[in-house]
Amino acid sequence: MGVRRVMISFEFQEYESLTDLTAVDRQLMEAAIRARDHAYAPYSGFNVGAAVLMENGELIIGNNQENASYPSGLCAERVAVFQAGALFPEMPIKAIAVTAASKNYTVKKPAAPCGNCRQAIAEYEHRQQGPIRLLFMGEEGTIIVCNSLADILPLAFDRSYLQ
Question: Start and end of every CMP/dCMP-type deaminase domain (predicted)?
Answer without folding.
Answer: 23-160
